[in-house]
């Protein structure tokens, strides 16, 4: 009787293990140790009877029978799986994407804009910033000089469809969208597109934009300076916010004045000639101004500096 009872118990456990994937826990299937990268697409082979518990550094995660397919949002990624069964347990898969940086500027090549895409970005970047003078977008939250750069930059990288116009509430523009990618699905970087030393984040103030996210173009306003390039100034007497940044529009400058104790500040838009006449020396882009740092180009733009 005892033998029969034991046989029934053992048989039941075997049936449960087979139906729930228990044997896959007792005898793990061979799993691809090296994931497959196809651009910013990641394919990871997984054991049978597994489900995704959590993940980091990935977007648009899809679970198939024997693999996980996802888009890379960050260079470092991980997936935590749970294997069902008698000895069900967690499996952790992870990796680090090696960045290709042919121009040695700290930004991955696949996250930079080349050729026509750089031109398309410049059009949208300047247009979005200038429209904030007409009527600030409800989607723009950080109202200061660097906040204007971040807002215009991120929105210029997006897909400009009907939903986008409804959200940002600016007049329609006829510029074509960039084609390489759309924010926040930037290859390798995802939404963390601002460099601070060796890492990337989703935020950068004026100082860190200047130190890590731009390359110098010129110390004077010449033909080499293009619409969408940035003008930086440094005022050490302003201990709280000594760095200030403006956008060169092609025939002038657009910037946010920053807030003060008595004002939230405002967006100002100038023609070059008018600005050069009206602004005090400490705010002019001329070599005689020791506070003028120069004209700079966003590293995300991989177009010619010559």
Plain-language structure description:
This protein is of the alpha+beta class and 306 residues long. The chain has 7 helices and 15 strands. It has 2 domains: 28-96; 109-298, no CATH class. Helices cover 25% and strands 27% of the residues. β4 and β5 (67-72) form a beta hairpin. α3 (115-134) packs across α4 (145-156). The longest helix is centred in the middle third of the chain and has 20 residues, at 115-134. 31% of the residues are buried.
Quick summary of this structure?
By secondary structure, the chain is an alpha+beta fold. The protein contains seven helices and 15 strands.
Question: Could you name the key traits of this structure?
Answer:
306 residues; six-stranded antiparallel β-sheet; 7 helices
Task: Break the fold down into its secondary structure elements and pairings.
Blueprint: H1 2-20, H2 22-26, E1 36-38, E2 41-45, E3 50-56, E4 58-63, E5 67-72, E6 76-83, E7 89-96, H3 115-134, H4 145-156, H5 162-168, E8 194-196, E9 199-201, H6 206-212, E10 214-218, E11 230-234, E12 243-248, E13 252-256, E14 267-271, H7 272-278, E15 292-298
Antiparallel strand pairs: 1-2, 2-5, 3-6, 4-5, 6-7, 8-9, 10-15, 11-12, 11-15, 12-13, 13-14
Helix pairs in contact: 3-4
